């Protein structure tokens, strides 16, 4: 890992520090000792008894992996104990770009901000309106000599909503319509999934009856819209609307003895008529040219 030492606004390369391995003493649970010291001058037993005397260290109780939704503010939380007069910075690994130093933003991209909570010793990197290109490794770094850091992975995801079998479904009259809406890539299940029919919210207690919805929430959320004893009035556009993801639409065709190919053929009738008209005009033009040749 390449670590950056910040001095008067300039960068200088420093030695690599493997933050995944503790130093020679055993830190308390959830804490990680990262400050630099001369091991020859220290006794391991004393270090184990007095870890707070060894300089700043990271609290690693929180997860290193953060998932955020496209457009929703993301927070990378870095908890530093015993910071003293040291400074906390945030660095983006893919280009070694310095983002923040203390509470100040050191990049022209003002979407990156430092948020300090002194009660919890937190130095969070706030990312406004994150996009998928912002995914990657970010490092919280303490200005020790050499500097030490704690890396975190930000994954910015865009939820995907799909309806199985779409965009057109053909159902026989009297059959059960089963519309299955699947929502993926959400950090947490959507609080609500709404279904509409021809832009109108579906009333599951309507006199029509036989209409119900079942939603299973998890890493992948699935919502089933069930319509029993399908009739012609059940045809139309159905839309699945997760509260925290994009909507998806499917067109349901309830058949009364028709063949799906016939319906698809009628849909293409307009475009076919245009082709036929163009062909007729072309024939008339050719006939005119032949009748009156250019001399």
From TrEMBL:
TM ranges: 269-292
InterPro entries: Ig-like_dom, Ig-like_dom_sf, Ig-like_fold, Ig_sub, Ig_sub2, Ig_V-set, Zig-8
Region ranges (Disordered): 33-54
Keywords, alphabetical: Membrane, Transmembrane, Transmembrane helix
GO cellular component entries: neuron projection membrane
A GO BP annotation: synapse organization
Protein name: Ig-like domain-containing protein
Organism lineage string: Eukaryota, Metazoa, Ecdysozoa, Arthropoda, Hexapoda
